[in-house]
Design a protein that fits this description.
Order of helices and strands of chain A: EEEEHEEEEEE
Number of strands of chain A: 10
Radius of gyration of chain A: 13 Å
Largest interface: A-B, 9 and 7 residues
Oligomer: heterodimer
Strand content of chain B: 25-35%
Shape of chain A: globular
Number of strands of chain B: 19
Distance between the termini of chain B: 44 Å
Helix content of chain A: under 10%
Strand order of the largest sheet of chain A: 4-3-9-7-8
Number of helices of chain A: 1
Largest sheet of chain A: 5 strands, mixed
Distance between the termini of chain A: 31 Å
Strand order of the largest sheet of chain B: 5-6-4-14-15-16-13-17
Strand content of chain A: 25-35%
Chain lengths: ~100, ~375
């Protein structure tokens, strides 16, 4: 699932393909799109598990407010993947609790 | 709800008012708490949540020690989790003068009963918390801790109701009627509450109540601001204070770190956060804790604390107004003392004496 033609953001066609690592496997994204968009397109729905009850969380607000989509990116926990652009060689991991 | 008459009306639904009313209700006194807004919504609920004994003068330290003993069993007493955890309290020294003063302070504090207070070298501090080389030493009190400010005050309010007392929220006091120099009734928009005993426990707003009965109460409001970081894995276990105006920080059990620094006298009761406080707090605390630089501040809040000229609280009956009591003026250190001051005020009202000498905290010290 990917919005190929967006009335404001334009077209995704002809965008460079970037490759990044997600929990040990390689995933392709389009340059300029958020990490969350690339993961959604790859079928990933669970981005993290909550600390206390170990419940799955994924995309909710998608505009950087709710913090449900936080993951560990290049070793840094609590990164909001819906507003963080994907880059070549990035290491993205499912966040467990605080994501130490 | 038409208010009933009471034996004692406590004005103020913060930790002092609610603790006082709780222990009064436990002594079978018919008590009503009148609160202008909600329970614990001012300084009590907007504080750092530290429950500290160390770094107090011997007299106040002994009171804080009694309070710490009450906190230890408060969950059971109030049948509610107040979030009390003995995570320890550290005071950091960043100058040789601090270190010297710490040695002096430790001596009289241990003599006053804080026998577990220990001295840590800079390296011993760095083994426990991620501070810079700037930290030379610390005093560490393992029996100090934290509690949950919101839960603690609510727990007392629930306790009052369980024991048959009344808690009236969103009920401002518009007047206090006196007869023959004694309290007669507390006036609210919901009606009058007849009572010949009143307790003024309205924190920074206590002077307004004093005016209603012709008494001057020297309390200056201060705005204390706190920043809240995102949740992170445990990185700072004890409550940490940086003396010399350096601020304090405490990591809550949920992982958020609270950064407190900015406390300033204000001539109004504005409790909005300010940009200046954000900048100065972040700057000062990250100098000592460099690894906090990468954390995101997710919100901020402020509370109005109340300062007296000598920074000691005011406790006791008002001279010339038999039946009118004050418990206020905690000068930024009141949350930890709520249980013991509530208990002592209930003793004073119900039994006419206190189990700890409290005369020197009477309001009359300011009239000399």
């Amino acid at each position: 699932m990917r919005i190929e033609e967006h009335p404001i953001l334009g077209s995704l066609k002809n965008r460079r393909i970037v490759k990044f690592e997600y929990d040990g496997r390689e995933i392709e994204g389009r340059e300029g799109e958020p990490i969350a968009a690339a993961l959604m397109a790859a079928g990933v729905r669970t981005f993290r598990y909550t600390k206390r009850f170990y419940q799955p969380r994924g995309i909710y607000c998608a505009i950087g407010r709710c913090t449900d989509c936080m993951m560990v990116v290049d070793g840094v926990p609590n990164v909001r993947t819906c507003v963080t652009p994907v880059r070549d060689g990035m290491k993205v991991e499912t966040q467990l609790g605080y994501g130490k | 709800m038409k208010p009933n008459n009471a034996e004692v009306v406590v004005i103020g639904g913060g930790i002092m008012g609610c603790a006082t009313a709780y222990y009064l209700a436990k002594k079978k006194v018919r008590v009503t708490v009148v609160e202008r807004s909600g329970i614990g919504l001012e300084a009590s609920g907007n504080c750092g949540g530290g429950v500290r004994q160390q770094s107090r003068e011997p007299y106040m330290l002994r009171l804080a020690r009694r309070s710490a003993a009450l906190w230890l069993h408060l969950d059971k007493e109030l049948e509610f989790d107040v979030g009390y955890r003995r995570v320890g309290n550290m005071f950091l020294a960043t100058t040789p003068e601090h270190v010297e003063y710490f040695h002096e302070r430790m001596e009289y504090e241990r003599e006053a009963g804080l026998v577990e207070l220990t001295f840590l070298t800079g390296d011993q501090v760095r083994e426990r918390i991620p501070v810079s080389k700037e930290v030379l030493a610390a005093t560490y009190c393992p029996t100090d801790g934290i509690a949950n400010p919101m839960r603690a005050v609510v727990a007392y309010a629930r306790g009052i109701k369980r024991l048959g007392g009344t808690v009236m929220t969103y009920t401002p006091v518009t007047g206090i009627e006196m007869k023959g120099g004694k309290p007669y009734a507390v006036v609210t928009p919901k009606g009058e509450i007849r009572a010949d005993t009143i307790v003024l426990a309205a924190g920074a707003w206590t002077p307004e109540l004093g005016k209603m009965i012709g008494v001057s109460i020297p309390i200056q409001p201060n705005r204390s601001q706190i920043l809240v970081t995102e949740r992170v894995a445990p990185m700072v276990v004890p409550f940490v204070a940086i003396p010399g105006g350096g601020g304090y920080l405490t990591q809550r059990p949920d992982g958020n770190i609270l950064l407190g620094y900015h406390s300033r006298p204000v001539d109004n009761y504005d409790k909005r956060s300010t940009w200046a406080a954000y900048v100065i707090t972040a700057k000062n605390i990250t100098r000592i804790f460099p690894s906090l630089k990468n954390l995101t501040i997710i919100r901020a809040f402020a509370g109005i604390t109340e300062f007296t000229p000598d920074t000691r609280p005011i406790f006791g009956e008002i001279d010339g107004k038999p039946g009118a009591y004050v418990v206020a003026g905690f000068s930024g250190g009141g949350f930890a003392l709520g249980p013991v001051f509530g208990l002592l005020m209930s003793e004073l009202i119900a039994e006419g004496r206190t189990s700890y000498p409290m005369e020197e905290l009477n309001l009359r010290r300011f009239s000399a």
